[in-house]
From TrEMBL:
<dbReference type="InterPro" id="IPR029044">
    <property type="entry name" value="Nucleotide-diphossugar_trans"/>
</dbReference>
<protein>
    <submittedName>
        <fullName>Uncharacterized protein</fullName>
    </submittedName>
</protein>
Length: 363
């Protein structure tokens, strides 16, 4: 935990982000999330946004306050067990000193409603998390959860008296909840000793700390696109390439032009694709679906840059095939469409798709 924070004024509520490292994709994620939060504000509403970062210069000119994190702080927050996501719990705990209500938000989050609708859910002994994922009883027998299960048994937890596990992509707490975060950090340290099989231990620890309290879900107010990053990263890169990253009111307005869901063909197109793949073997069906979904994405300026997201998924599936079968797809440039793959609905996409797959294979 850092010894001191910069002298920021304590506020009634804050939207809090954590971002570190110099990867462009995460900087764009954070900035786009901030834009969606601002775009959803109602007339007369204001918002205190704070960003904990090792690169405060990236947010110069943006309507945010930055908390500078040095290398020593980031190393301390990671802890001695090398668990990266421990930093998130530490950031929330430290942020509690800066506001009566803190809404921590992962950078891969889009606001669909005003953040104030979420702040209203935070109350004494009532917390906010992104969304319910599963009960401990559902996963406790999985091989990768057995070691954690041994730790939880020491706390009297078993399949018969399990607790709910929430996604912590969004976490709403109060200044008085410091003991809750401190307990979660202690459990993270206990559960990551030696080695660990689960990379979501941080959100399990926070869920465990909240197990006897009321937890409200926020997923109707936000879209946490953690499973579909490839599509949103493509759209955000396109957005900032068009308009730049210098903040201005027009940037807030323009962010609403970017779709808030991934590109999926129309119901009629999906039915056609399903019929087209009906006789394919299972592994070919998965690849064919991704290739055809990319080819049949709805027409939209931002969806046009997303088609590679579907084709990338197909490419990764093909890498799991045997070498001979891969070569039928990745073979000589100029060869026709592979016989084992279903043809895209648009013939013009055949060469585009093959060029993409073969270029990826050649890297």
């Amino acid at each position: 935990m850092p010894s001191a924070l910069p002298p920021l004024e304590k506020t009634s509520q804050q939207l809090l982000y954590l971002i570190y490292g110099n990867q462009d994709v995460y900087r764009r994620e954070a900035k786009f999330s901030i834009l969606t939060a601002l775009a959803q504000l109602k007339q007369g509403e204001s918002l205190c946004i704070r960003v904990m970062t090792d690169r405060p210069q990236d947010f110069a000119g943006w309507p945010v306050e930055t908390v500078h994190l040095d290398e020593q702080t980031l190393a301390r927050w990671q802890g001695s067990n090398g668990y990266t996501h421990r930093r998130k719990a530490c950031a929330i705990a430290q942020g509690l000193k800066l506001a009566d209500k803190t809404l921590f938000v992962d950078t891969d989050t889009l606001f669909l409603k005003s953040p104030h609708r979420v702040f209203e859910l935070i109350a004494p002994d009532q917390y906010v998390m992104d969304g319910f994922e599963y009960d401990w009883s559902y996963v406790c027998q999985r091989p990768d959860y057995l070691k954690l299960g041994e730790h939880l048994q020491a706390h009297g937890i078993c399949a018969g008296n399990s607790f709910k596990l929430y996604n912590s992509g969004l976490c709403g707490v109060r200044a008085s909840d410091t003991p809750l975060l401190e307990a979660a950090i202690r459990w993270i340290d206990e559960w990551t000793q030696g080695s660990f099989d689960i990379h979501t231990i941080e959100q399990i620890a926070i869920s465990f700390a909240m197990r006897d309290k009321t937890v409200r879900e926020a997923n109707r107010f936000v879209h946490h696109y953690f499973a579909d990053k490839r599509f949103f990263h493509a759209m955000q890169a396109h957005f900032f390439s068009l308009y730049g990253e210098a903040f201005g009111p027009e940037l807030v307005a323009r962010c609403l032009d970017v779709p808030q869901v991934k590109p999926v063909p129309s119901p009629w197109q999906r039915l056609r694709i399903k019929w087209k793949l009906r006789n394919q073997r299972k592994h070919l069906k998965r690849v064919g679906r991704d290739l055809l979904y990319g080819s049949s994405a709805p027409k939209h300026p931002y969806y046009d840059v997303c088609r590679h997201g579907w084709w990338e998924s197909a490419f990764k599936e093909i890498l799991g095939w045997d070498v001979e079968e891969q070569q039928k797809v990745f073979g000589t440039d100029g060869a026709g469409w592979p016989k084992q793959l279903p043809r895209p609905l648009k013939r013009a996409d055949e060469q585009v798709i093959l060029t993409f797959l073969r270029q990826r294979a050649a890297r």
